[in-house]
Design brief:
By secondary structure, the protein is an alpha/beta fold. The protein is built from 19 helices and 16 strands. The longest helix has about 30 residues.
Length: about 475
Amino acid sequence: MPDSASILLVDDDRHLVESMAHWLRETSHEVETAATLDQAKAALRQGQFDLVITDLRLEAEDGFELIAYTRQNYPDSSVLVVTGYATPETAVQAVRAGAFDLLTKPLIDDELTLAIQRAVAQSEISKENALLREQLDRRTGLENVLSHDYRMLKIFDVIDSVADAKASVLLTGENGTGKSMIARAIHARSARRSGPFVEVACGALPDTLLESELFGHVSGAFTGANRDRAGKFQLADGGTLFLDEIATATPAMQVKLLRVLQEFQFEPLGGTVTESVDTRVILATNEDLTKSVMEGAFRQDLFYRINVINIVLPSLRERVGDIPLLIEHFLREASETCGRQIDGFDSTAMSALQSYSWPGNVRQLENVVERAVLLSRDEGLTMEDLPPEISGHSTSELGGGMTNTLPMQTLPDEIDGKTLREALEGPEREIILQALRLHHWNRASTADALDINRTTLYKKMKRLGLDDPRLQFV
């Protein structure tokens, strides 16, 4: 807490104000005085105060109005009430109105000093919290979406325009284009930024579990439901719900989603009480929903409901000019994480990076940069630090000019009579199982490590019998 605080002293007792102001100035505080509500408001408009000390009776005026005015317009200024007519009810009303504390006249010097210290300390904490929230907003807002491309700049303008709208937003684009990051940016730039941001991967769960996940359930709704559980719509009340991979929702789930997106009302699974929420919904998909509607796989009425605002994210190959900017950002992050000094890619490697088609988009670029930083022995990165699909070199060429090739493998007896898909199931299952264990069964991280989208991973896990939760404990 600072030794000196800026204080606005408000009281209609002129002798008391002068005496208290003199004492406060002697204790190194800066003090201004006001006798009426209008004078106090004028002083607040003209200067910045750490603390407002006010009586509740200002001639014919009400000190509660000053408390509310200060709280609404100058939230960084704490309010300390000093009154000779205090009752327990008065204290409760003052705190509810926004006062930090209430003291009764006649004042004791030590009591007032302690109250001032506590009030100013609380004001400093509030300012620090506001700064931390601002920093957090910057990390999750558009400031973290790097681009010079005109398509992305137009998207930034749209985000600013629709951030505070209640209408649903549909984000479309290939995997790895940053749909989750854009959804968080919309939330961070909206008036709901102080509310929760809840993300659900719709393709991660079967239909019955997805319904419980979104709408919650009551005790006894199904086997194992031994208590009531709130769903994601309720958890996101007052904030934003991000539904990723919405195209994977079954027809039955689409009907339920249509109702909640129209009315923002629903019943938990197994329940009869209708819940109402104030939740902003953002949805995303990497599939062509228009085509899905034409094929009958996606409801037309739900499509029109969610397609109020459609933001199409361009692929990385459509914004080649952003690649150096993104590489610089990912290099800095990877270098800090690994504790290494990396100068960057040479011109030949940079040209190869810009010429590549990037089917995995920004996510793949980030992985390639991180791989290069981890495997490189020098501060400068070259073609040898790039994976073969980008450098164009074979595995043997990357081994320092060696021309040895991998030995021909003898086909095992186990594949005799099997189709190619059946023969590959064993190795594929083992690779996915090892990756799941390595990433502690975090499916999103596993999908990224295997360079496949989450929906593909979930489908493979189900086909290969890896969706049994008991495997996590084996």
